[in-house]
Specification:
The structure holds 2 protein chains of 2 kinds. By secondary structure, chain A is of the alpha+beta class. Chain A has a 4-stranded antiparallel beta sheet. Chain A is rod-shaped. Chain B is an alpha+beta fold. Chain B folds into 3 domains: 205 residues, 2-Layer Sandwich (Nucleotidyltransferase, domain 5), CATH 3.30.420.260; 73 residues; 74 residues, 2-Layer Sandwich (Alpha-Beta Plaits). Chain B is rod-shaped and about 150 Å long. Chain B starts with 6 loop residues before the first strand and ends with a strand. In chain B, 32% of the residues are buried. Classes of the chains: A alpha+beta, B alpha+beta. Strand 3 of chain A pairs antiparallel with strand 14 of chain B.
């Protein structure tokens, strides 16, 4: 092989390697973009798993509620009458909205004036023990100005019940 | 690239006797072994050696080299008046043509040691031989069963080997008198630069040899004087008396004189040159009359270069493809996982690719109202908070005058014996998880303080 041919060979080798190097650089630049896509998707999957955990918390709360709620429980008005006796009160439903089937939420407001503190305690205690499907969402207690030692009480009560149409009962 | 050719056989036939030398390059050094020292060229020993040489050459394990006699070669040092090697290469044949006694078109020419020299010129060592002479030499060698792959110029082989043996200390003039069978080579140069050479028949008398040598010296040293170095070499070696006679007749008194002894300088030179890098090899039978093994040997480096380049390129591209596939696979895996998770939350069978997060978030926002109350039922109601408040207030002698408890908007008003008790009440509520901020104002003379607690939110 002549020196000139040798030199040509070297140049060809250099060109081939440069082309391969160029291809490699281009490939690795695309690889950066792909890595960015993978990172983004990985983060998305992590966020979806967080959402999934929250979703499982919700569904498990529904299951827990359904498990602890008896098929039949004391009606709210009757429980209040039993607890307050002769004390007058006013109970009115303010809102009803559907929850995840077959459940719905009913919000009621109870107002009682001149209520002794002991009766209020009994009333709240009854919510804990006799009405597991009810929850006191808001409690307003103000001492009665006209009757010292007695209280003006307003309770906002949430009750979750199974919808009859949905359950078919 | 030249690793396969680490073995060279140097061959010479003189007066019907074969001389053969095997050179093997290993670990950067060349080891020389004499195979035949003047055995009859037609004898079984010579035949056996030549068969072995031919077998090794044809399998590509080795090359064989022989010399074109000095009287068949023309060696000139040419100088082109250009500061460009590329341009100089184009004019060297024309310059050589002027120096040759026959047309350059009839010759095989090689231009070696091309380099820039002082004055912006380019210098080369031109080696030429008539194609007819080359053919004759090849035929004669073939008649002796010698088929050398490389046909080197005899003077060049001798000069380069002696330059290797006796490295010039400086660019001083050097004269070589080498006896090679029936010829005596007279070579002249400066340092390692071979400048000119001639050959004479060895059977001429010492007086004739001295006269021819003196004429040669006058042509290469026009100003007269003596070369700084003189090397005697070859075999059979010149007798001491002949050497003294030559020195006296030519009136030369070299500052240094070496004797290479009876070693086979020509064959060693052939071996050493043949085992050089391919570009540095001079092969006068390379074009037209080339040995079949020559083409495969010279094309091998090119093939290897292509193969190496191709493999390197294939490796790079292969790694790229594999890496891309891996990344695509990982991205696909993540997409499938995202779709499966989104499907399990929303209950939808098909979710458009890339919209998993959007659809799931929208679904959760819509479902929040339906599920949030169940979560609230898992937390303590306001009655629990009410009992905690009453207990803490009772312990600190605090009278509550207004109590409104709800998620995120509770307000408590009351009277406390002191500001410290009011703050302690706030701290106690905080300890049971009821975080409220307090504002305190005096209630009047001796009646403690009035305070107001609100949810921090």
């Amino acid at each position: 092989m002549t020196p000139a041919a040798h030199k040509r060979t070297r140049w060809v080798m250099v060109v081939v390697l440069l082309v391969a190097l160029g291809a490699a650089v281009q490939g690795f630049r695309q690889s950066d973009r792909r890595n960015e896509t993978i990172r983004s998707r990985h983060q998305q999957v992590q966020e979806l798993h967080d959402v999934e955990r929250e979703w499982l918390t919700w569904t498990s709360a529904v299951e827990t509620f359904a498990a602890r709620t008896p098929a039949t429980s004391t009606p709210l008005r009757q429980m209040i009458e039993d607890t307050l006796g002769a004390t007058s009160f006013n109970l009115s439903a303010t809102e009803t909205r559907p929850l995840t089937p077959p459940w719905e939420l009913e919000r009621s407001e109870l107002f009682a004036a001149g209520l002794p503190a002991a009766q209020l305690a009994r009333l709240l205690d009854a919510f804990d023990h006799r009405l597991p499907d009810c929850r006191v969402a808001e409690l307003l207690v103000i001492p009665s100005e006209s009757e010292p030692g007695r209280l003006r009480v307003t309770l906002v009560i949430d009750q979750i019940t199974a919808n009859r149409q949905d359950t078919g009962t | 690239m030249w690793k396969n050719r680490s073995i060279c056989y140097a061959l010479s036939v003189e007066d019907g006797r074969l001389r053969a030398l095997k050179g093997r390059r290993a670990a950067g050094r060349i080891r020389m072994d004499t195979l035949a020292e003047g055995v009859p060229a037609d004898g079984p020993a010579a035949m056996s050696i030549l068969q072995q040489v031919e077998a090794d050459v044809m399998t590509g394990r080795a090359v064989s080299a022989a010399a074109l006699p000095a009287h068949e070669t023309v060696i000139h040092r040419l100088t082109a008046p250009f500061p460009s090697i590329r341009k100089a290469r184009k004019v060297f044949p024309s310059l050589l043509d002027l120096a040759l006694p026959f047309p350059v078109e009839q010759c095989e020419c090689r231009f070696e040691q091309i380099r820039m020299v002082a004055g912006g010129k380019v210098e080369t060592l031109a080696i030429a031989a008539r194609r007819e002479s080359i053919s004759t030499c090849i035929d004669e060698l073939a008649g002796r069963k010698l088929r050398p792959v490389i046909l080197d110029a005899e003077p060049r082989a001798v000069w380069s080997e002696l330059a290797q043996r006796f490295p010039p200390a400086d660019p001083a003039s050097r004269l070589v008198v080498h006896r090679e069978g029936s010829r005596v080579l007279i070579l002249y140069g400066e340092g390692d630069r071979f400048l000119s050479g001639t050959s004479v028949r060895s059977w001429i008398s010492t007086e004739d040899l001295s006269r021819r040598m003196a004429r040669f010296l006058r042509s290469v040293i026009p100003s007269g004087g003596s070369p700084a170095e003189l090397i005697w070499s070859g075999h059979p070696a010149l007798a001491s008396s002949d050497k003294e006679e030559i020195l006296r007749s030519c009136s030369i008194q070299p500052a240094a004189m070496h004797d290479a002894g009876g070693e086979d300088i020509l064959l060693q030179g052939l071996c050493r040159n043949a085992l050089q890098e391919p570009g540095a090899i001079v092969n006068l039978r390379a074009v037209g009359a080339a040995h079949p093994a020559w083409d495969s040997l010279t094309s091998r480096p090119l093939q290897k270069a292509w193969l190496t380049c191709g493999m390197a390129a294939a490796l790079v591209i292969g790694v790229n493809i594999a890496w891309t596939r891996l990344q695509d696979h990982r991205a696909e895996q993540l997409t499938r996982e995202a779709q499966a998770t989104a499907a399990s939350i929303t209950g939808r069978e098909r979710i458009p690719r890339g919209q998993e997060a959007f659809i799931t978030t929208r679904f959760m926002n819509e479902a929040r109202e339906q599920y949030e109350p169940f979560l609230q039922f898992t937390r303590p109601g306001m009655n629990t908070r009410f009992y905690q408040l009453l207990n803490e207030a009772h312990e600190r002698g605090i009278a509550l005058t207004h109590l409104n408890l709800m998620d995120g908007g509770s307000v408590i008003r009351g009277n406390a014996p002191s500001a410290g008790e009011a703050e302690a009440f706030r701290d106690a509520l905080s300890a049971v998880g009821i975080e409220m901020k307090i504002s305190i104002e005096p209630a009047g003379a001796g009646d403690g303080v009035r305070f107001r607690l609100e949810d921090r939110t």
